[in-house]
Amino acid sequence: QVQLVESGGGLVQAGGSLRLSCAASGRTFSAYAMGWFRQAPGKEREFVAAIRWSGRSTYYADSVKGRFTISRDSAQNTVYLQMNSLKPEDTAVYYCATVYDPYGTRWRSRAEYDYWGQGTQVTVSS
């Protein structure tokens, strides 16, 4: 059974940094992509970043490009989201998710992801 467990959320001032972790278990992830999404109150869940398990390809939403970095440790089956220069509009529950994506064509669509973590709250104060 696939399990994704996020950690690392919290309260931080604007301009600060946080690193989120997503520990994955229950399958071999070599042909998968891992994504981070976020959902603010009253808004739809939106794509933040994704990485193919090979680590050779990463993708970012325009709103976080240059501030956030996604990475993975294949030995630990863990994906990270380093968030720098945080803004109040980054406040949301952050979720990691996994999608079978051998050709790098499915990472963009939220609907394609089949397993999700429980989420971790990130709050950025102004």
What is this structure's SSE topology?
Layout: E1 3-7, E2 10-13, E3 18-25, E4 32-39, E5 46-52, E6 58-60, E7 68-73, E8 78-83, E9 92-100, E10 115-116, E11 120-125
Parallel strand pairs: 2-11
Antiparallel strand pairs: 1-3, 3-8, 4-5, 4-9, 5-6, 7-8, 9-10, 9-11
Structural class: mainly beta
Instruction: For the record, give the distance between the C-alpha atoms at the N and C termini, rounded to a whole number.
Output: 40 Å
H/E element order: EEEEEEEEEEE
Rounded average pLDDT: 95
- Given the structure, what is the number of helices? 0
Tell me, briefly, the overall form: globular
Low-confidence stretches: none
Q: Roughly what fraction of the amino acids lie in strands?
A: over 45%
Oligomer: single chain
Helix content: under 10%
What kind of sheet is the major sheet? 7 strands, mixed
The tally of strands reads 11
Query: Cα-atom Rg, whole angstroms?
Result: 13 Å
Description:
With 126 residues, the chain is mostly beta strands. The protein is built from no helices and eleven strands. It has strands at residues 3-7, 10-13, 18-25, 32-39, 46-52, 58-60, 68-73, 78-83, 92-100, 115-116, 120-125. The strands form two sheets. Strands 2, 4, 5, 6, 9, 10 and 11 form a seven-stranded mixed beta sheet that branches. A four-stranded antiparallel beta sheet has the order 1-3-8-7, with no helix packed on it. Strand 4 (32-39) and strand 5 (46-52) form a beta hairpin.
Protein traits:
4-stranded antiparallel sheet, 126 residues
